[in-house]
Every structure is written in C-alpha cells, then in structure tokens.
Amino acid sequence: MGRKWNNIKEKKANKDKNTSRIYAKFGREIYVAAKQGEPNPESNQALKFVLERAKTYSVPKHIIDRAIEKAKGGEEENFDVLRYEGFGPSGSMVIVDTLTNNVNRTAAEVRTAFNKNGGNMGTSGSASYMFDATAVLGVENQSVDEILEMLMEADVDVRDLIEEDNAVIIYAEHDQFHAVQEALKQQGIEEFTVAELTMLPQNELTLTGEDLTKFEKMIDALEELEDVQNVYHNVELD
Q: Where's the TACO1/YebC-like second and third domain (predicted)?
C-alpha cells in the first residue's frame, strides 16, 4: 500500500492539534451528522462513525457534547458536502473534501490554494478515477493471523492486512467499515489506532526537488482552509 497509516495519523494530529483545527473540523462534522438523523449514535450510523473517528484523534468530550447539543437546538446551520479535484506538479493528483456553509467562498479558496502553488483545479472525476474508496482500521497488540481469524469467523472479507509499528492495519472495501469494526468488537477489541474512510491512490508518485517543495506547500495550504475536512493525494511522502 505504500502508506504508513499510524505515522500519517500522528503527523496530522500533531500539526492540527497545535491550532485546534482538528477539533473544529470534527465539531462541524459531528454537528452535520447529528442533524442528519437522531442526535444519538445508537440510532444514527453517520454520527456513530464520526464519533469513532474522533475517538482515534482524542477529540475532547466537551467538543463532542457541544456539537451534539448544537444539533439538538433550534438553530439551523446548513452545510454542503463538496468534493474538489485537481492537479499539482508533475501530474500529481489531489482530492479535497469540504464541508461548507458558503460554497462560493470555499471554491475560491480551494482554487487559490491550487493556483498559488503550481497546481490547478480539475473537473469532477478528473482525479478520483485513479483512487479507490477504502476503509482503513488499525488495531494494536494483535497479529495479522489473529485478526484474520477473527474476520474469517465473522465471514468478513478484507483487501489486505499489514503489520505496522506494533499494529495491524486492515484495508477493506468502503462499505465494509462497520462490518469489520463490529467483527473485531465482538472479539473484545474496542480501541482502534486508525478508523478512517479514505481515498487510496491506485499508484503513488515520487516527487523531488522544487516539485516536492511546491506540492507540500500546496497540501499544507489546502489543509489549513477552514472548510476542508480531508485532502487525499497520490504522492509518496515520508
């Protein structure tokens, strides 16, 4: 797979934690999920999934509670889920998922982040066809054989299992996230180092020199935008 998921998650969490961006992003996502149905994770699968992800990033309880209470209140704040696709140096591909209450502002900010750093916006589908929607879960203190046996007992198929930094990283089809998680929970596993729905590139690209510098600056600019929830790309980074 070419990706160190625990390392990626740790770097992202450390960078975002310094400015509390990760908490703001989760707060918004929790609010939207809670507004889509009942503000109760037991009856709202979308909310349950977001809370599972928030747990792996150690999002404080008061952030979660505040977002859910806001969703319960009478105040209505509408958000659109939008995806932008584009290109960076040397044919690198980027997908940007956003959650916004101002579409024009978000589109302009994303376009600027691309254009100022050697990239350009593409049309819908221009990059995503080279990515696969994937569920990624990480479990510590288990072996690949142990996890595989648990999943086989539950009759759950996965794409791949890889050992990484004292953890097993599980790659599965996008719609198998809950099946994998529930199968492991039935075996007493409650803690996950990674619990993500992501877009994995079918092939990774290596950049060097000025191209790499521009690309990293572009990704940083995109991730710093308030309305951006996730950025996916096909460049292999340390």
A: 82-235
